[in-house]
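Supplementary material to the annual report.
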Amino acid sequence: MPVRFDRSATPGVIRLEGEIDIASARELKDALLEALGAKGEARISLGMATGMDVTAVQLLWAAEREAQASGMVLALDGPVPEAVGATLRQAGFARFPLAADTERDGEPDPGAKPEPKSEPEVR
Amino acid sequence: MAGGSVDQFRSGFQEEARELLADLESCLLELNENREDGALVGRVFRALHTIKGSGAMFGFDRLAAFTHNLENAFDEVRKDRLTVTGDLVDLTLSALDQIRAMVEEREGEAAPDPAACAEIVARLSALTGCAGSASPGAGSGGKAAAPRAPDAGSPALRTARSEGGTTESHWRIHFAPGPDMVRSGSDPLLLLRELGQMGPMAAEASMAAVPPLAELDCERCYVNWEIRLATGAGENAIRDVFIFVEDLCELAVEADGAAPDAEPPKAPNAGQAKSAEALCAADRTARALEEKRTSPGRRASDKPDTAASLRVPAARLDQLVDLVGEMVTVQARLSEVAARSEDGEVLAIAEEIERLTSSLRENSMTLRMLPIRATFERFRRLIHDLARDLGKNVELTIEGADTELDKTVIDQLGDPLMHLIRNSMDHGIEAPEARMAQAKKPMARIHLSAQHSGASVLIAVSDDGAGIDAEAVRSRAVERGLTTADAQLTDAEIFSFIFEPGFSTAKQVTDLSGRGVGMDVVRQRVESLRGSIEVTSRRGQGTTVTLRLPLTLAIIDGLLVTVGDAFFVLPLASTLECIELTREDVERANGKHVAYVRGEVVPYIRLRQYFAVRTPAPEREQIMIVESEEGRCGLVVDQVLGDCQTVIRNLGRLYRHVQVVSGATILGNGAVALILDPQRLVQEAVRARMQRERGRMRDPARETEKGGRPRETAPPVNRNSMSAGTITGVSL
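Predicted assembly:
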């Protein structure tokens, strides 16, 4: 199972394993919604992930945006595997979604930049 | 995978291949006219590539292997190592015929010709084989295609030459996956990776369109990309990366004159990302505008959203239309019963159902409407081939290709149009020298047009050829006993002889025409569609054959009228108004069949007389004024009962010569009503009258004897008419 929500951990951890693609997108979305619904704090572990497609990237990105807007903490647990990171870098994602270490000081998300007005909650 | 689903995929491929082949054919013919058009070459190449790829996937191995040769040839053309020549186009066209046969082979409808295939492959490899070699005539293809001399002045940024390989060009690419791209199994990130392998690339992903998580469709990509790429490969190579998602995304590739800032970003660097982004954002608007103006070949955004359309077997649509037809009939009965019951509630429901049935009918009819474009485009190939065989220069122009017609009508149109075009090509259009001698342009023209006209569609085939020799047609008609030497005939009447079975003025029978069969087929087919044909022709200037066809063959809106105890339906679309006709009006007109409508004289036809209805006429009758090609004309009926939706049923083969009745319908009370064709009614009446008058001038005595009584008072009955009783007495 590529997406596992470990609710026993504190905070809860969504563990992603293997290829995170369209086949597991629904599960990932449900897990993220659940994490966001619980408020407080949640983490996402990519340690066992080998790859990620665009559906996963946009889910993580949307989740991050909503977590920031609601003031909850949703962050990566551990490093991003190099293979996954490289794919995303090459595809022009300026940073990894949820990668707290590159968090900018109050800057809007680069992706939201072309139309900053339409995404006020990001600020 | 179950056998059934494999077959399903195969038939899916076959359908796709048929479309691609049709598209390819028109691309090739267009390419023949504009041989330097790189976008067209790209389209041809991509279509071949798709046919090959999908064919191999679904087990059409021979097809894939054969198509591979063609793809290679067009790859050479793309790389500017081979030029497009008429022979290459012809060779490819005949190869397409073989591919088509391979696609249909399983259906047992066609079989490829192995010898022809082998020859095509040999000629193709001769072409591609000698590409780049110094002696162009080395292959058996001989003059077929000349390797292009390397020209330094090659336009734009097509500097990429794989042998040279050192020149790098810079490209800007806008890539926006459509809603279905990911669902179809393509991950944009993999495409970007592939693109990144072509050279230094800076991509920027825009997340602006990503909706809130709860609303996000997991299987859809919301991300767009602006990409800058420096590569030695050409535009086609870049487009090839996206070849399988071409229809599923928006893609714009253009040369970037600016110096590259395109080093692959090494690490997440906010500053660098920001500058790249600013650059991209500034460009975006300009590019979007420019993209709207220029259209480099086919772009996904030009085409309708594939997600918004469905492929449904035509048979299912026919079934639906049949069911709706039944529904309309039953609804008519319901309305009838409800009206009798005088129960307000039932009446309300019946009215509601009538309203719903009416919109259901309209909706289901539009489902079967198709633009005539594909039918017209198909003739490009025919004209190209015939022009080559006959040594004539002919171009095809098309007008009104978006005119929509019922699919059942369109399906029947191919043959008549083909015969008309063959006839034009063979008899109408002169050889180039003959045209020059008459100070005509050597390039002759065949013009296909379609336009709506009331409830009909007019489809015309015109040429600017020699025109029809009315005298030759006339003397041939006299020879064949179709008319007499002294008959006074209008041009239209003379031209109508060419549709007689076996009629031909051709002195020799050619492959194409001259046997006098084609035009006969045209008339039969058009008449079976309840259409009519009109021919106009001027010596030395050309001929136009116009087919008037009904928009649909299934259900129409009509007005229900009675004459005696017979019911008739007049199509609403051709009816203008209804006025009263009293005995005094009749007396005032001195026995002439004319009425005065707001000062205008309108002739009328008494349906009571026409159909020999024996019951006496009521005190007040109604004139339905209809619009016809001959002008306004009235049809006198006893009573107008109101409008009705009418399912047209055929009268059967026995009555196929009856032109004035286009079918019959079953009414709510179970009675049968004949559906009249006002156009034909008026035409018949005019023709009958002219014949009578001519006959009278020729031999008044004989005419009177033959009719048994003076024809002036007899109803204008002719071979095409019959009494209402004859038809309504027949079970349908």
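The longest helix of chain A spans residues 54-70.
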